[in-house]
């Protein structure tokens, strides 16, 4: 899987620093939704170490790409799972389905 990424840390580096991510977001009008996804992840996981935004490509399907917004978090597995469920409820309620098709939020334990 090919990727282009940029990392936002507690210093709030620009999420769309990678030219590939920025171009994809501009082409599909995703910049605001990616920023909102990152904001919701930070809100839901206040101890997040950082947020990584990367452009992902499906190696088996030509032309299928999406933006991955991944939070690096710490905490107990059960607490993290509950927080992610809360995040998903809020994200689905605030993000239109066509936009959700192009953004994949995830978290990984640090």
| Strands side by side in the biggest sheet | 1-2-3-4
* Mean pLDDT reading: 86
User: Count of DSSP helices?
Assistant: 4
- Cα radius of gyration in angstroms: 13 Å
Q: Which regions have little confidence, pLDDT < 50, spanning 5+ residues? A: 1-14
- Would you list the SSEs in sequence order as H and E? EHHEEHHE
Total domain modules: 1
Distance from first to last alpha carbon: 22 Å
Approximate strand percentage: 25-35%
Sum up the overall morphology in one term: globular
> What's the CATH class, please?
Alpha Beta
| CATH architecture name | 2-Layer Sandwich
Judged by helices, strands and strand pairing, the structural class is alpha+beta
* E-strand count: 4
CATH topology, what is it called?
A: GMP Synthetase, Chain A, domain 3
Strand count, sense and barrel status of the largest sheet are: 4 strands, mixed
* Portion of residues within helices: 40-55%
């Amino acid at each position: 899987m090919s990727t282009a990424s940029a990392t936002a840390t507690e210093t709030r580096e620009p999420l769309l620093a990678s030219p590939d991510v920025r171009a994809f977001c501009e082409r599909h009008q995703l910049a605001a939704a990616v920023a909102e996804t990152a904001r919701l992840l930070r809100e839901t996981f206040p101890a997040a170490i950082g947020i990584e935004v990367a452009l992902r490509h499906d190696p088996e399907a030509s032309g299928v790409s999406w933006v991955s917004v991944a939070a690096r978090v710490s905490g107990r597995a059960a607490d993290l799972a509950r927080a992610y469920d809360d995040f998903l409820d809020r994200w689905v309620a605030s993000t239109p389905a066509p936009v959700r098709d192009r953004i994949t939020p995830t978290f990984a334990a640090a």
